[in-house]
Specification:
About 75% of the residues lie in helices and about 0% in strands. The protein has about 290 residues and is mostly helical.
Length: about 290
Amino acid sequence: MATRHSRSAARLMLAPAVILLLGWMLVPLTMTLFFSFKRYLPMRGDSMAAGLDWVGFANYTRFVTSSSFWPSVQTTLIIVGGVLVITVVFGVLLAMLLDQPMWGQGMVRIFVIAPFFVMPTVSALVWKNMFMDPVNGLLAHLWKAFGADPVAWLSQAAMPSLIMIVSWQWLPFATLILLTAIQSLDSEQLEAAEMDGAPVLKRFWYIVLPHLSRAITIVILIQTIFLLAIFAEIFVTTGGAFGSKTLSYLIFQRVLESQNVGLGSAGGVYAIILANIVAIFLMRIVGKNLDR
């Protein structure tokens, strides 16, 4: 049993890390809130004194009344939802496949997980130039081989293309988490169900899927937190055109257009509010599954 002295020592040793983390989070958040109520134009050459005029909630009103605000929120949620569906469904299938004994199993797992370690910018550039280029891309040559006209993916199908690119990046993460969960499943349950004559689909639906429910909710929660801030892939591929402008990209665009850091800070506060709403909703789902 821990004594009072050992608990005090533990708190003392943890204090530097806790203080560092709090500073890492609270200082940028405080500055964002401060600038959101100001008219701060450093890129126009204004001095700090002249460029920090108090404007109250004018930045918030201007940002939320923009014609691009709600479409960007909708686009963000569509991308997040599409990526989650693809990564969870194919993650479960890949995890079950990788759990089966096969030749070169270790190498196959490494190749499947490898895309997660590729930088988002690099991944987007590879997809844009190597696969989706309407002239020299691999998909264009594949279409030509079947006698079809190549598709300009990033202009004619921008949203599906972005969902495909981001899903490719996050599928290894979901597969790794779900594979770990599958390997913890008691094989005797599956063997008993098989001996009782239960078909494959019923074994999956009543044994495997309930066992994976906690892992799936964790995957959804973690991916959603990061996907709500998706930016690099859009910047590299579509530049926010063709209906692919997310909330994060809209904030970036508004700062460049108005050169007003205060307006971008107000957009950042809206992004934080949206992320918290989604997180609270997901935490309720995660909590229910973890309590089972």
